[in-house]
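Lab channel / #folding
Pinned by the channel admin:
"Please post every new chain as: sequence first, then the C-alpha cells as a reply. Keep commentary short and put observations after the output so the thread stays searchable."

First post following the new format, from NK:
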Amino acid sequence: MLLYWFGMFGIAAFAITGVISSGKRDMDLFSVVLLGMVTSLGGGTIRDVILSVDAVYWVDDVSYVWVAFLSSVFAFFAVRVIENRQQIFEYADSFGLALFTVAAVEKVLNYGFSSIIAIVMGVITGVAGGMIRDLLSHRPPLVLGKEFYATPAFLGALLVVSLEKNIPFHEFNSVYGAALIFILRLFAIHKGLYYPSWLLYKKRSKHDAE
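Reply from TO:
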C-alpha cells in the first residue's frame, strides 16, 4: 500500500512541475495538461515497456491517469496565484524524483529482477519524466547539468536495494531511500551541491587545443 501511494504522490508532484515548466510558453489548457500528464506518466511507462510487463501500470490501473489529469488541471489554475513558482517547481521535482525512484526499485524487485536491474530502472524511472518535461518545454534538462540530480536517485536506489537485502521485512525501507534522495536534492538546490570539477566533462577551449 505504501508503494502505491508513493506512486500516486510522485505522479501528482511531477504533473505540477510539468505545468509550471510550461507557464512561460503561452500554452492553452489542453497543451499544459497534456505536458503535465506526459511528465508524470512517462518515466513509469518507459520502465514497464523496457521490462516487458504484462500491462503498463497506468493502463492496468486508470487511477494513475486520473491523478495525473486532475493534478495538472489543478496546477494550471493554482500556479497563477503563486509568486515563487521556481521554488515550488524545485521542491515538487525533488519530491517526485525521490518517490518515483524508490517506487520503481521496489516494483522491479517485486517482479523478481536482480538488484542491478532494480537500481538502473529506478534511476531511469526517476529522471525520465523530468527529461521529457524539460525537452518538451525547451528547458535545459536538469539531469544534464552539473548540479546533483541523477546521483541522488542512484544513491537512494542503492540504499533501498541494500536495505531490502539485509532487512527485507522492514516497512520503511522505501521511506529511507526517498528521504535520502530528497535531502540530497535540497542540499544541491540550497547549498550548491555540485559535482567536483574533475568529474565534469568540459569543452576544450581553442587555447587548450593548441
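NK: Residues 2-200 form one domain.
TO: also worth noting, The mean pLDDT is 86.
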